Amino acid sequence: MSSTSDTQVSGFLPPRWFIRAAWKLHKALFRWSRGRFGLRDARHDRYGLAYLTTTGRRSGLDRGVMIGFFDDGDRVVTMAMNGWGAPEPAWWLNLQADPKATLQLAGGEKVSVVGSRAEGAERERLWEQWRRLDKGLDGYAARRPTETAVVVLGPTVD
């Protein structure tokens, strides 16, 4: 859910199967091109696209997913959404079990990151930044039965 309780469900949202198919196609293009296509940098007026690799909480294997993000200083901010469906996305469950991950950005740069959930005033501030990038955010989030986690991916401390 959004940060406000009186949000109405509004705005067009394609069916969940379409959203999931589009992300799978996007991921396939990324793999087929060996990372040359499919990622983009975040800008002030749009979110970026990155490839996040987590460790599977059950399998222990690398699991990759395309995520939308924006920059917040030296951190990257994303949302734990699953095509706006009710269940939490597997990558977020994996990060909760093992917060260490790798983020591949446009241009091929790979960065080691640690994931955490934004809470309280920080969550509100970051949610507001997402809202500026996506005007339908509150309407989409209202379709979920639980609050959408705002996830911060920060640099690892060696």
CATH topology assignment = Pnp Oxidase, Chain A
Largest beta sheet: what is the strand line-up?
A: 1-2-3-6-5-4
| Structural class by helix and strand composition | alpha+beta
CATH class: Mainly Beta
Second CATH tier, the architecture = Roll
Let me know the number of strands.
6
Total count of domains: 1
Low-confidence stretches: 1-9
Q: What's the oligomerization state?
A: single chain
Mean pLDDT: 87
Helix count equals 4
Radius of gyration, whole Å: 15 Å
The biggest sheet amounts to: 6 strands, antiparallel, barrel
CATH superfamily: Electron Transport, Fmn-binding Protein, Chain A
Order of helices and strands: HEEEHEEHHE
Fraction in helix: 25-40%
**Could you tell me the strand content as a percent range?**
25-35%
What does this molecule look like?
By secondary structure, the protein is α+β, with helices and mostly antiparallel strands. The protein has one domain (16-155): Pnp Oxidase, Chain A, CATH 2.30.110. It is 28% helix and 28% strand. It is built from four helices and six strands. The protein has a six-stranded antiparallel β-barrel with strand order 1-2-3-6-5-4. Strand 4 (100-104) and strand 5 (110-117) form a beta hairpin. The radius of gyration is 15 Å and the shape is globular. The termini are far apart. Mean pLDDT is 87; it is low at 1-9.
Keywords:
globular; Pnp Oxidase, Chain A; 28% strand; single chain; six-stranded antiparallel β-barrel; alpha+beta; 158 residues
Task: Describe, in short, the structure shown.
This protein has about 160 residues and is of the alpha+beta class. It is built from four helices and six strands; from the N terminus they run αβββαββααβ.
